[in-house]
Amino acid sequence: MTYKIAVLPGDGIGKEIVDQAVRVLTALKLDIALEEAPVGGAAYDQLGHPLPPSTLELAKNSNAILFGAVGDWKYDSLPREHRPEQAILGLRKNMGLFANLRPAILYPQLANASSLKPEVVSGLDILIVRELTGDIYFGTPRGVRTAEDGAFKGEQEGFDTMRYAETEVRRIARIAFEAARKRNGKLCSVDKANVLETSQFWRDIMIDVSKQYPDVALTHMYVDNAAMQLVRAPKEFDVIVTGNLFGDILSDEAAMLTGSIGMLPSASLNASNQGLYEPSHGSAPDIAGKNIANPLATILSAAMLLRYSLNESAAADKIEEAVRQVLAQGLRTADIYEEGTEKVSTSQMGDAVLKALS
Ligand SMILES: NC(=O)C1=CN([C@@H]2O[C@H](COP(=O)(O)OP(=O)(O)OC[C@H]3O[C@@H](n4cnc5c(N)ncnc54)[C@H](O)[C@@H]3O)[C@@H](O)[C@H]2O)C=CC1
Ligand SMILES: CC(C)CC(=O)C(=O)O
Ligand SMILES: [Mg+2]
Q: Which intervals hold domain Isopropylmalate dehydrogenase-like (predicted)?
């Protein structure tokens, strides 16, 4: 069977990094068909919408999606529905990609690239399971209105709605417990139950689901403490499960433990084994078009694509091994460069991974 992969590069560094991941996927000579489509600001410019129906259709009809990133400051004054970010939010929602897996692994060669002391981060291997289609990112009502009560009655106010339905919490809980069961059996649920009703509800359901996983040790932590513990003693964590907003923030923080945001891949999965694979970072407009972005998070996302959506674990292992090799050779993009290593461009990093594969 030929697997169909939708390739959606998007904006900023999106094309530069996805190009390298496509080269890697192609070099593996698997039975895959890649089809590219516009998304984000690029699609808005071309077709008047950040997620054109043709792109969504292609994504839905594919086994997996390789996604770059969307967004650029120049679109920030557009009405929200036309902003590039609506493309990735729309794909997640329309395809039910509720389970976002963000593994934060420190490759030993990058121990000095991390902003933390090597002894704090060496050997780091944690998994953040972020709920991706609910929470305040999607809750309604939202908007700007005239305040009807409170100290600022009569003023304009902005508002959003944080909400989680029971099904949403149960299904992400199961994904996280299953992942913890296959790893070191530790699951930390991160919330803000001391303040938020939504979080107390989340916590109660986590405790209920935990009854089906007596082999997994469930703990709870408030998000402010979790942000602190991630830089104090990150290796205390095994699997973290959290909501959309907290997971977004904590995963960027965890990225720096691995040396750079350019190292953190992700998989976003739905209930039908379809997945969208993208680096955890954004479109980095500040370095776009310079051929200096780190493509490894995207290349490692392609490895996750092979493992989770195509059942090609051996090919995924090969990519991860090739990444280990290029790092061992001392090759570094600017974001992970340190004295004594060799600074390479985005495409040179791609060349090196390809060479290590052959
Ligand atoms: N999934 C997506 O498409 C996402 C899109 N965004 C969008 O991206 C745009 C920029 O957002 P920012 O907050 O600046 O986040 P960002 O992740 O794009 O960049 C943050 C910082 O990290 C650096 N960086 C990011 N990826 C890198 C890489 N591969 N190699 C080297 N350095 C890298 C950037 O140069 C920048 O200094 C915004 O429009 C935002 O909405 C942000 C996050 C995710
Ligand atoms: C558009 C944003 C919600 C994307 C983001 O920051 C992320 O998924 O990490
Ligand atoms: Mg983010």
A: 4-353
